[in-house]
Amino acid sequence: MNIKPEELTGKGYVLLDQMGHQELVPFIRMYMSKKTAYRTWYYLCNFIIFGLAGYLMVAGYGKADFHLGNRVTHFCYGLAIALTLVPLHEFIHVLAYRSQGASNTSYDANIKKFYFMALADKFVANRKEFTIVALAPFLIITATLLILLFIVRNDWTLTIAGILLAHTAMCSGDFGLLSYFEYHKNKEVVTYDDVANKITYFYGKETEKVA
Fold this sequence. Notes:
The chain is an alpha+beta fold and 211 residues long.
């Protein structure tokens, strides 16, 4: 949006919430407990991928070349590799922010609480812009992995399934924030990051009704 944070109140926006970055996890948990389409899609994706991994794990059981230990090992490879995708995931967030007009982007992380964030300092994003930013890593990485799933052979499909499962699970923060927007769908919600104070603000105003 072509608007500065200090202009929001003059445009009719009021503060809805502020989230300290240290409180990201409980904030996400709160809105992942709300009944929203994004929460449903998140859990459905996890369920489908978990089912896929389970199928690949036992497919061909009873055949001479079936080795459960090898399959478990390859699946664990995938879980480990997924952790190395975290920088790429956040970098895609940053690229998406920049595609929407943000210029002052950065990263934040807390290993102890296991959260990672891509930030756009003082960039006010509306629902559409934030949706692009939030979903970009999930869509790009998932699409790439699904293509690879049809290319690799043998137990390596379980490695891809492991990456898919772990990466999708780690997208809970993105879906939780999108769930926040949907939960307040009766309002025109915008958000921006205050990097210096480690706070993300959410403002909203009533949507104009067509007579």
